[in-house]
Amino acid sequence: DRSLDGLTALVTGAVGGIGQATVLELAAHGANVVLADLADAEDLASGIAARHGVAALAVRMDVTDESSIATARDLVAARFGRADIVVNNAGIMQRLSADHHTLPASDFTRMLAVHVAGSAQVSAAFLPAMRDNRFGRIINLSSVIGHVGLGRRTAYSTAKAAIGGLTRGLALENARWGVTVNAIAPGYVMTDVLRAKIAAGTLDYDRFAERSAVGRWATPDEIARVIRFLAEPGSGFITGVDWLVDGGFSIN
Ligand code: NAD
């Protein structure tokens, strides 16, 4: 199934757990992929290109740094013309066990800078070319925590809820240009980073598995396939949703 043939997808935080699964899923469906991360993605990009017969470009990007976003946009324009699909996936976690009144103010603003301003600025950089081409797909990563809230994760809860507002505003502004803007709100997803925390005893697998109705965490692939679905040309009537992919966590 090459439903994304001829399209170019940029994924921020592409080296992370959900990011890697997403670039693999999009490439497997024929998209050229741009792996944007603070971390080096060269090896990952060449592996994906070899495996799926698509072009894969690694770019260093800090989503809080406008000049690095502009550099990435120019590299993408030179190589592919534009990005048809942008997945705003880069993210950070809140320090453990920090009630809001004990959290340094700089941690709070950093959380908003990466998730909210980062997604907004990366979108702004790639939207004009999408509009010119009368096609675009922006997919933001929010979280079930943005819907239900989580104590000791107030900064994260705030940032992820704000992704919903960003998504709806951009969806309304850009719909007439064939550009859809949606968010995915995953439940708990078993990435390497979180697996290591569980192994170290600083994160409780069972607590969050039991909160979900299906009784387990998601795999990164289960999130990536929903992102791919929203990215497809056939998904043009879905815009402005903040779609829970949480195994029933929010209704349990
Ligand atoms: P991860 O920690 O595995 O990967 C995050 C990636 O983002 C890393 O490669 C990191 O280098 C990159 N990154 C961080 N700051 C950046 C910046 N300023 N500029 C560019 N890149 C930056 O995280 P993950 O678990 O794969 O999460 C991906 C997204 O999904 C995040 O937005 C996260 O909040 C969201 N999410 C994750 C879960 C989960 O359970 N894992 C659940 C809901 C939502």
UniProtKB/TrEMBL annotation:
<dbReference type="InterPro" id="IPR036291">
    <property type="entry name" value="NAD(P)-bd_dom_sf"/>
</dbReference>
<comment type="similarity">
    <text>Belongs to the short-chain dehydrogenases/reductases (SDR) family.</text>
</comment>
<feature type="domain" description="Ketoreductase">
    <location>
        <begin position="7"/>
        <end position="187"/>
    </location>
</feature>
<dbReference type="InterPro" id="IPR050259">
    <property type="entry name" value="SDR"/>
</dbReference>
<dbReference type="InterPro" id="IPR002347">
    <property type="entry name" value="SDR_fam"/>
</dbReference>
<dbReference type="InterPro" id="IPR057326">
    <property type="entry name" value="KR_dom"/>
</dbReference>
<dbReference type="InterPro" id="IPR020904">
    <property type="entry name" value="Sc_DH/Rdtase_CS"/>
</dbReference>
<dbReference type="Pfam" id="PF13561">
    <property type="entry name" value="adh_short_C2"/>
</dbReference>
<dbReference type="GO" id="GO:0032787">
    <property type="term" value="P:monocarboxylic acid metabolic process"/>
</dbReference>
<protein>
    <submittedName>
        <fullName>3-oxoacyl-[acyl-carrier protein] reductase</fullName>
    </submittedName>
</protein>
